[in-house]
């Protein structure tokens, strides 16, 4: 269970609070999409939930344990984070990079057990990265690297997986495939998967639950169906040029454009 308990996130002055007093609970096995326009606060929220940024107030609890107070080793075992930044991995082959996902569990020598190796193998297959497992990570395309980082997170077998705009470099079939595999991973392992995305259509089709940031500091939480029907999606994304149609379930150009 992930619980946001009166959580406020943001920065010092001048930007200050981005999202305030969040109260949300997520059960195991949920695939949650975090949606909102540019600057709404998706990355700020996900960084805070990953323990990479201090909260301005309140707590984020994973299985009742405050994420901010976890020892780095504990956090590394329980939370996997995938960001769009490219980690430089000079000289490392893809399977070495994915094996790093097991590092929080290996002893001080970092030796992989047969179980660790099996998890790495399965993760590479799941993420569709098996065919380039022996290549150098730094030689891969952006989309291929993104799959490797997903494989590393899967190999880590975390309770919470946080992925920030990771589908940005993937082509359309790749995005569908990756989001579907993350949802299946959540269901199969009981992990909570939190993914921010600008892929509104796909997210609304695949998410168990959506966290919709309205860009004014508000957060609406619900199933895609309820958020669409209640007009939250339109309020968060409509502009003079495009409008979300709840009946069609997609954006249309506004009449005057
Ligand atoms: N390091 C920072 N210091 C101060 N303010 C920041 C910092 N990073 C982001 N912000 C501000 O916080 C707000 C939320 O930014 P954030 O990056 O979380 O939005 P986002 O929803 O992830 O946007 P995008 O879709 O463009 O990636 C914005 O107003 C942004 O300018």
UniProtKB/TrEMBL annotation:
<dbReference type="InterPro" id="IPR027417">
    <property type="entry name" value="P-loop_NTPase"/>
</dbReference>
<keyword id="KW-0067">ATP-binding</keyword>
<dbReference type="Pfam" id="PF00005">
    <property type="entry name" value="ABC_tran"/>
</dbReference>
<dbReference type="InterPro" id="IPR003593">
    <property type="entry name" value="AAA+_ATPase"/>
</dbReference>
<dbReference type="GO" id="GO:0005524">
    <property type="term" value="F:ATP binding"/>
</dbReference>
<protein>
    <submittedName>
        <fullName>ABC transporter ATP-binding protein</fullName>
    </submittedName>
</protein>
<dbReference type="InterPro" id="IPR003439">
    <property type="entry name" value="ABC_transporter-like_ATP-bd"/>
</dbReference>
<feature type="domain" description="ABC transporter">
    <location>
        <begin position="2"/>
        <end position="240"/>
    </location>
</feature>
<dbReference type="GO" id="GO:0016887">
    <property type="term" value="F:ATP hydrolysis activity"/>
</dbReference>
<keyword id="KW-0547">Nucleotide-binding</keyword>
């Amino acid at each position: 269970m992930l619980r946001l308990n009166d959580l406020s996130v943001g920065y010092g002055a001048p930007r200050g609070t981005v999202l305030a007093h969040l109260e949300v609970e997520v059960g195991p096995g949920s695939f949650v999409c975090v949606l909102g326009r540019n600057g709404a606060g998706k990355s700020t929220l996900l960084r805070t939930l990953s323990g990479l940024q201090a909260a301005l107030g309140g707590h984020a609890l994973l299985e009742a344990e405050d994420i901010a107070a976890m020892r780095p080793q504990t956090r590394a075992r329980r939370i996997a984070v995938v960001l769009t930044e490219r980690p430089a991995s000079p000289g490392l082959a893809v399977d070495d990079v994915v094996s790093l996902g097991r590092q929080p569990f290996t002893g001080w020598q970092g030796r992989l057990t047969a179980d660790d190796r099996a998890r790495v193998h399965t993760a590479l297959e799941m993420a569709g990265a098996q065919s380039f497992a022996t290549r150098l990570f730094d030689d891969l395309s952006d989309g291929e690297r993104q799959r490797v980082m997903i494989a590393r997170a899967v190999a880590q077998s975390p309770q919470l997986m946080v992925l920030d705009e990771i589908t940005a470099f993937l082509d359309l079939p790749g995005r569908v495939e990756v989001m579907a595999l993350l949802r299946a991973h959540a269901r199969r392992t009981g992990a909570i998967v939190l993914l921010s995305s600008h892929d509104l259509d796909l997210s609304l089709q695949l998410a168990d639950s959506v966290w919709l940031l309205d860009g004014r500091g508000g957060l609406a939480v619900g199933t895609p169906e309820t958020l669409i029907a209640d007009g939250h999606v339109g309020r968060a994304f409509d502009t003079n040029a495009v409008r979300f149609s709840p009946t069609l379930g997609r954006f249309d150009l506004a009449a005057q454009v």
